[in-house]
Amino acid sequence: MLGLGLHSETHEPMVAYRALYGDYQLWTRPAGMFLETVIHQGESQPRFSPVKLF
Fold first, then answer.
1. Other C-beta atoms lying within 10 Å of the C-beta of residue 30
2. Please, what sign has the CA dihedral across residues 31, 35, 37, 41?
């Protein structure tokens, strides 16, 4: 996660983050979606989790 900002028209909170795979693109996602829980391989888990890089 790089930071939190606001959508320019709706003022919805948005999260900016960089993918840690592929070509490491910069992405944005609504904060509520970024923080939600999803079902993955039959188990409930956070959509994203902290990663220690250093």
1. 14
2. positive
- Could you count the other beta carbons within 10 Å of the beta carbon of residue 15? 19
User: How many C-beta atoms lie closer than 10 Å to residue 16's C-beta?
Assistant: 14
Residues 40 and 18: their CA atoms lie apart, in Å, by 21
* HSE-up of residue 19 (Cα within 13 Å, Cβ side): 9
User: Can you give the pTM of this predicted structure?
Assistant: 0.79
Give the confidence band of 54 by pLDDT, cuts at 50, 70, 90: confident
- Domain coordinates in residue numbering, the chain: 3-46
